[in-house]
Amino acid sequence: MNRERFIKQRRRDWQEFESLVGRMQRHRIAKWHSDDVAALSRLYRSICYDLSLVQSREWGARLEQYLNDLVARGHNCLYRSPPQSFRTVSRFIAGGFPALLRSYRWTCCVAAALFLVPFLVSAVVGILRPDLAEFVVTQQSLEATETSFEEMLYTSLDDRYAGERSLMSGFYVFNNAGIALKAYALGVFCGIGSAVILLFNGIEIGFLVGFVASKGGLLAENFFSFVVTHGAFELTAIVIAGVAGLVLGQGLLFPGEQTRIASLRQHGIESLQIALGAAGMLAIAALIEAFFSPLPISSGFKFATGLLAWFSVGLYLLRAGDVEEPAA
């Protein structure tokens, strides 16, 4: 049997298997029909044999990869564990997310550079030439920042504080999640859209920081003590959301030995997981920004808390999820 005849004879089973796996994965195990399970098991065994045949006869890497993907999908479908939502989510948060992020360390470095370089340059320019900030941040935003931080936002934990901060927490969650979603979704344009979002945010935030720093005094103290703690989560999450978009673009541009569709499927799943992790960090940032950052407490305590937050975020992303090598 030659390669073309083999593909012609087996293609119908492969297509049926793909359709069956897709249908079964959309439903809980308890709702699977016995006939579907039997058909899936039969087709799974035959496709495993097809894969071994293709490998032994060296009928092409693309065909081998296609069948290997089918076998992997079938295995995951047949042997997946019953849903354990809380355990799965907690495991992902505790170690899966940072470990996945570290597996794309070079992509993380690129995303960090795309944000940090324009941020630092813009901050320096903003300090030296604060008049240029209005061309990037807008005069209205700069005036609002000056008005908000000329003095402490609150002097006591009264009803006004409780009402306003509860309202603002919802706004911050919505706003921050929108930033992450945009940075991730624009990755579909070969990662270029995500790179632009990182550059734009770096420039805009950098100019705002530089402008405030140039003013100095109580304005700078109130502003930086306000942003230092939630900034550890928010700024880091913006970069991570950009990483998710770049990973998506990477799947489109560099499929490697996989087909472009298979590469996009794999990178798409992993980029979505990274984006969800970033969204979680932005949600934490929103809660801190709403309820802790404006507290009428000393700036020194806020700076100390901010330093602890930055250290904790860094330690979590760099070390959480590490698997120690067993002793020899």
Kindly describe this structure.
Residues 323-328 have low confidence and may be disordered. This protein folds into two domains: 3-83, no CATH class; 86-319, no CATH class. α10 runs antiparallel to α11. It has twelve helices and no strands. It is mainly α and 328 residues long.
Q: Which labels suit this protein?
A:
single chain, 328 residues, elongated, 80% helix, 2 domains, mainly alpha
Work out the helix count: 12
Helicity level, as a percent range? over 70%
Write down the overall mean pLDDT: 80
Distance between the terminal alpha carbons, to the nearest Å? Answer: 49 Å
Strand content: under 5%
Furnish the topology, listing elements before pairings.
Layout lengths: L2 H23 L8 H24 L3 H18 L6 H18 L2 H24 L5 H4 L1 H11 L9 H27 L6 H24 L1 H37 L6 H32 L7 H21 L9
Helix pairs in contact: 1-2, 1-3, 2-3, 4-11, 4-12, 5-9, 5-10, 8-9, 8-10, 8-11, 9-10, 10-11, 10-12
Summarize, please.
With 328 residues, the chain is mainly α. It contains 12 helices and no strands.
